[in-house]
Amino acid sequence: MPNKETATSIRLKKTKGEKIAALTAYDYPTARLVDQAGIDVVLVGDSLGMAIQGEEDTLSVRLADMIYHCRIVRKAVQRALLVADMPFGSFQASPERAVRNAVHLVKRGRAEAVKIEGAGARLAAVRAILAADIPVMGHIGLTPQSVHALGGYRIQGRTLAGIDGLFRDALQLQEAGCFALVLEGIPHPVARLITRSLRIPTIGIGSGPGCDGQILVLHDMLGLNPEHPYKFVRVYADGAGVLGDAIRRYAGDVRAGQFPTLAESFELDPTILADMEHHYGTDHQDQ
Questions:
Q1: The pTM is what?
Q2: Catalytic residue among 184, 227, 264, 277
Q3: FRET pair for 116, CA 20 to 30 Å: which of 65, 202, 210, 264?
Q4: Terminal-residue alpha carbon distance, the chain
Q5: What is the pLDDT of residue 129?
Q6: For position 230, what pLDDT does the model report?
Q7: Strand-pair partners of 180
Q8: Domain boundaries in the chain?
Q9: d(Cα 204, Cα 220) in Å, to the nearest integer?
């Protein structure tokens, strides 16, 4: 097995010119597949609100939800760096509360790093968590937890003022000590320039090929999202089609009496079978 990924090894990939492959995971079976496929970073994202819980956004996800899913994923992930999103409300109130909740994600959720959306007023929380020896991944651009403040899921950095703000946020998060930075929903030329300006790696989602790595929501790239995928999502499998067909065939076999067969059933010791038939009578249907 290749060496275990850490926040340090992920940061060093930029200096080595190595691209970073990241994916989300929320349960044991898929996390195991993702890790065994050689993914570098597994993110237990608050996107579970939409991908798993059926919510319309990420805002209702609780810290308890993140800890629960993190612990499950941790059991499967052996090689990748496990990063946990800090959900909405878990770090905004104060740096002290942010540290307390980040510690819960590490101690109870077994995360190896946390991700925080935004900069500016969030920098104090980032610095406090780092001071507690917990690695932090930053996240700027289209930050889903700020959907109401942004006026919806809008591409960021389309004006000079917006671009200046993104550069400022990126540099501040780097200087605060983040080991990597997610760039979401940023025009490709802007994301490329930010990437070239930083010493730490950038991981893009909807920000073009100029980033140091990429991340997608697993359910999107596997074709399990019932909605039309975003422009930046490349669907690698018709997961909904494959699973739907399997479920329909199973239901058909059950209704036709073709599942299960006797070959797929457990046998009984002949002596016990004879005694049972003597006591209860013979089940002629199975003869």
A1: 0.93
A2: 184
A3: 210
A4: 52
A5: 98
A6: 84
A7: 137
A8: 7-221, 242-286
A9: 15
According to the model, what pLDDT value does residue 283 have?
60
Tokens of 256: 């036709």
Provide the pLDDT for residue 287.
46
Domain 7-221, what architecture?
Alpha-Beta Barrel (3.20)
Mark residue 53 as left, alpha or beta (left: phi above 0; alpha: psi -120 to 50; beta: remaining): alpha
Could you list the mean pLDDT of each consecutive 10-residue stretch along the chain, which spans 287 residues? 89 98 98 98 97 94 98 98 98 97 98 97 98 98 92 92 98 98 98 98 98 97 85 94 97 97 94 92 59
Q: Which residue has the tokens 């073009």?
A: 208
Q: Which two tokens stand for residue 233?
A: 């999502």
Q: Which amino acid is at 282?
A: T
